[in-house]
Specification:
Blueprint: H1 11-33, H2 39-75, H3 88-121, H4 140-226, H5 230-249, E1 256-257, H6 258-276, E2 280-285, H7 288-291, E3 295-296, H8 300-311, E4 320-327, E5 330-336, H9 349-361, E6 367-371, E7 374-380
Parallel strand pairs: 2-4
Antiparallel strand pairs: 1-3, 4-5, 5-7, 6-7
């Protein structure tokens, strides 16, 4: 698995996150420090607020970068799935260190801010001028008012410190969650990719298994057919070449036109009819204009027909009838259930592989079930 460096937030994401936290932090701070706001006050101190907004957003952005480095430091001795499955000790340690660091940085930022504002206002701020002797001596009431004012100011400053630290920890928590989400999303994509590759490998193996089996049976039929009917043998060879060419051409293709698949099925059914000599009937009821409109996974029909032939018995008196027809945007393949007395051994991978393939191609699933004594498979047609 990648290191957390692979899941770092971009500068744009950090700035957006800093602005989001600031949008909550700033109104609360204004509410604490100002009993009421006037338009005159806004006009007088707008430059101060603009400076503070800029410095605060930059401060939060820098904090996100620093906290990200802090998280990487804990990565060195934590597990490889730190962002996804962080353990409680590492989580508490990270939070405590982040909290302590937030307090230190907040004090440094506060001192910097006081220094900047003090420097800019020292010349014209009467609070910084030395009182003259004409001011007289302070009375006990004045001292009490001054003490209460100072105490209220200190309480507001402490509340502001707590609010700032809380905002910093919130930004840290949101950033960690966002990085964890990015990692989970990447893991999900990788899992889907591996699943797709596994399904494609299974289907490729299945086609490789079909090819020699199909060719062997066809050549066996052809060897006996040549001595009986030369004209039919030529037709058989032509259809065999067409069918086998289609199998080879669709080796790496995910979708084909339904008409192309039906044309292949026609050649394949011709070969099966020669093989089973009237014991198998396949009825296709799909209009030509509908067949050109939809797409299907290649070799779907061949595998389903072969599956029906493999599990059901057939005879001249009671042939196996496979019906292929369209209902809305679904292709149905149905056959009466007339199972063999001794069914052939089967892994069930053929039908399951078709289900898995369509799961990757569409959100609609392949339907498999029994209705009225028939075994019906519903294949979703692809646009």
């Amino acid at each position: 698995m990648d290191s957390p460096a692979g899941y770092s937030l971009t500068l744009t994401q950090k700035v957006r996150l800093a602005l989001s936290v600031f949008a909550i932090y700033w109104p609360i701070k204004l509410y604490i420090f100002f009993d009421h706001l006037t338009w005159e006050g806004v006009q007088r101190f707008w430059w101060v607020w603009l400076l503070e907004i800029t410095m605060t957003v930059l401060f939060f952005t820098a904090w996100l970068s620093l906290s990200e480095r802090l998280e990487r430091w804990f990565w060195g001795w934590s597990e490889s799935d730190f962002l996804v499955n962080i353990k409680l000790p590492a989580k508490l340690a990270t939070l405590l260190v982040a909290g302590a660091l937030a307090i230190v940085l907040n004090l440094a930022f506060y001192n910097l801010w006081v220094t900047v504002i003090g420097y800019m206002n020292r010349a014209d701020d009467p609070l910084h001028q030395v009182p003259s002797m004409k001011a007289g001596l302070a009375t006990p009431v004045d001292e009490r008012i001054t003490a209460l004012t100072k105490r209220a100011t200190q309480q507001r400053e402490r509340f502001n410190d707590g609010l700032t630290v809380m905002a910093m920890l919130s930004a840290f928590y949101l950033a960690a969650n966002l990085r964890g989400y990015k990692q989970l999303e990447e893991l999900r994509v990788k899992a889907e990719q591996l699943k797709r590759e596994a399904t494609q490998a299974q289907f490729a193996a299945l086609k490789n298994q079909v090819n020699p089996h199909f060719l062997f049976n066809s050549l066996s039929i052809l060897s006996s057919l040549v001595e009986v009917d030369t004209r039919l043998s030529v037709q058989f060879i032509n259809r065999l070449a067409k069918a086998y060419r289609y199998i080879l051409e669709q080796r790496d293709v995910e979708q084909v036109s339904l008409k192309t698949e039906l044309d292949f099925l026609e050649a394949y059914v011709f070969l099966l009819n020669i093989r089973f000599d009237g014991k198998l009937k396949i009825i296709t009821s799909v209009p030509s204009h509908e067949a050109t409109r939809y797409r299907i996974a290649p070799l779907t029909l061949q595998l389903l027909v072969e599956n029906a032939v493999k599990h059901n018995q057939m005879s001249i008196e009671d042939p196996l009838i496979i019906s292929i027809y369209k209902d809305a945007n679904t292709l149905l393949i149905a056959n009466p259930i007339q199972l063999r007395p001794q069914p052939e051994s089967s892994t069930g991978m053929g039908l399951q592989n078709i289900i898995n393939r369509y799961r990757l191609l569409t959100d609609r699933s392949v339907g498999v079930g029994e209705e009225g004594g028939s075994f019906i498979i519903k294949i979703p047609l692809l646009p």
